[in-house]
């Protein structure tokens, strides 16, 4: 995700279940050095082997915003669960989550001074924390930049996060498909966005618009909220009052989605389908029950923090990813925004988070 000034939120598990996503990454990565395979006297790169076996001890420092709502809380919970899963060769040193930029900088500096081997940082404000990320890199401590990207790649060794544009594309593509199934030629499609000044919101809306345009549709009534229950309810109420008919609605964020659904219930509206965003357990449960307007949600999964810890371990042990032929950890990893529906919701239950 892109930088999030003034917001303790993104822009992709609960405890033990969350650990699985990151474990998959580490499990496919070996204590053995990569070997070249020969074929007609030509060297051919091979996969890096099984790095799930314990290696040298690695101390991983972790810093994230305050766990004051569902998605961020799940980010922190997943990171801790993954580190515990890897405790045979990982020492985990988390800081207390904070939405105070100066305090987060000070906490990261303490980890740097404590000479951790690797740092995993989800910055409250990517721009503001760029300098401390670069300070760690200059001190020889690799940084895994989680989700909200720093201003320069010099401040991190590896970035892992979600794809906001693809999130919008997949939401729009799902809605377009459903409209065509219903033979609705000119659907009224609403959108409850996040904070419009944020690049992540702009990317999501652009992807949504592009996908609908490809299908010959367009975005109709649109409001922006603030990723909170209260703002979701207020802004959705405004949208519903202005639009006496809807065929579909995309809400960018399942945390604010609680308020969105409350507004829909208060207005006694049910003539449309709704798609959520991020993948909360609450929304997945409703999708599975198929008892409300919510029919799908597009993932932006906090399981990415589990994978970030797995990547940090491999960086600290100078290993690569097992199924890749590259000797080094990739410079960036972008998670995929899968569409969760009634048909596949059971497959994604392990990545659902409590709003």
Automatic annotation (TrEMBL):
Subcellular compartments: Cell envelope
Periplasmic binding protein domain span: 60-314
Top-level taxon of the source organism: Bacteria
Residue ranges that the Swiss-Prot or TrEMBL entry lists as coiled coil: none
Keywords: Signal
GO molecular function, one term: carbohydrate binding
Pfam families, per the entry: Peripla_BP_4 (PF13407)
Gene Ontology CC terms, in alphabetical order: cell envelope
SUPFAM superfamilies: Periplasmic binding protein-like I (SSF53822)
PROSITE patterns referenced in this protein's UniProt entry, alphabetically: TAT
Family of this protein: Belongs to the bacterial solute-binding protein 2 family.
Protein name: Ribose transport system substrate-binding protein
């Amino acid at each position: 995700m892109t930088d999030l000034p003034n917001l303790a939120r993104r822009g992709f598990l609960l405890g033990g279940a969350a650990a699985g996503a990151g474990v998959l990454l580490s499990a496919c990565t070996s204590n053995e050095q990569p070997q070249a395979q020969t074929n007609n006297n030509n060297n051919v790169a091979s996969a890096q082997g099984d790095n799930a076996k314990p290696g040298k001890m690695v101390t991983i420092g972790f810093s994230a915003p305050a766990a004051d709502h569902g998605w961020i809380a799940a980010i922190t919970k997943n990171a801790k669960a993954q580190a515990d899963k890897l405790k045979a060769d990982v020492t985990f040193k988390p800081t207390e989550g904070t939405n105070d930029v100066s305090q987060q900088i000070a906490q990261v500096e303490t980890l740097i001074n404590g000479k951790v081997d690797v740092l995993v940082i989800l910055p409250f404000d990517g721009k503001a924390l760029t300098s401390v990320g670069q300070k760690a890199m200059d001190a020889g401590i690799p940084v895994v930049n989680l989700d909200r990207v720093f201003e320069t790649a010099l401040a991190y060794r590896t970035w892992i996060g979600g794809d906001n544009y693809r999130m919008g594309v997949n939401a729009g593509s799902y809605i377009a498909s459903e409209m065509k199934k219903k033979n609705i030629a000119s659907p009224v499609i609403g959108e409850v966005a996040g904070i419009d000044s944020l690049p992540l919101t702009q990317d999501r809306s652009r992807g949504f618009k592009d996908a609908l345009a490809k299908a010959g549709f367009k975005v109709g009534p649109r409001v922006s909220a603030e990723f909170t229950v209260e703002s979701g309810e207020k802004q959705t109420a405004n949208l519903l009052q202005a639009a006496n008919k809807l065929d579909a609605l995309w809400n960018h964020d399942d945390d604010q989605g609680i308020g969105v659904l409350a507004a829909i219930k208060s207005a006694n509206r049910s003539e449309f389908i709704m798609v959520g965003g991020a993948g909360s357990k609450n929304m997945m449960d409703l999708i599975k029950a198929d008892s409300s307007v919510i029919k799908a949600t597009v993932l932006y999964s906090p399981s990415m923090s589990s994978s970030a810890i797995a990547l940090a371990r491999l960086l600290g042990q100078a290993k690569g990813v097992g199924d890749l032929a590259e000797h080094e950890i990739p410079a960036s990893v972008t998670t995929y925004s899968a569409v969760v529906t009634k048909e596949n919701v059971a497959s994604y239950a392990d990545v659902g988070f409590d709003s």
